[in-house]
Amino acid sequence: xxxxxxxxxxxxxxxxxxxxxxxxxxxxxxxxxxxxxxxxxxxxxxxxxxxxxxxxxxxxxxxxxxxxxxxxxxxxxxxxxxxxxxxxxxxxxxxxxxxxxxxxxxxxxxxxxxxxxxxxxxxxxxxxxxxxxxxxxxxxxxxxxxxxxxxxxxxxxxxxxxxxxxxxxxxxxxxxxxxxxxxxxxx
Length: 187
Prior knowledge:
Blueprint: H1 5-22, H2 27-34, H3 38-45, H4 53-62, H5 67-75, E1 88-90, E2 97-102, E3 109-116, E4 121-124, E5 132-140, E6 142-147, E7 150-155, E8 159-161, E9 168-171, E10 178-186
Helix pairs in contact: 1-3, 1-5, 2-3, 2-4
């Protein structure tokens, strides 16, 4: 059973509200901790809008979760991850498309398949790398990763293991889509 974008956005919104309420936080509390406005969080919780990757990273960080950790909780995780059941989420601003290949709350390893459209970039704050170790493996195309001011140019087959947490920009400076795999382990 393949989930639609609306199904995933609704599940994300419900999970964010559940995480917030479980902590006894108001919308003002989560807004203050994440730097995302109360109005934006409210729209996400009600499923009225699909949040961007940056917004999700900020909200996840406020909950002391990674982006993948928040999405796994929203999407549910199973031991066998059949291709047809792997949730796909797309950033409405950049077209960045993320397929959660493997993620389980009780397993330290996560695998994510990403498609970054031509001429696009996604900036992830250092908080999204707290308590994880991550590597990126380019499958097709070219990817530029700016890791705290250090520029890495990767081609198909190249793999980069990330250093200490810092702000990271993933950029596709070419005219073709870049496909890469993110492998991360919780530390």
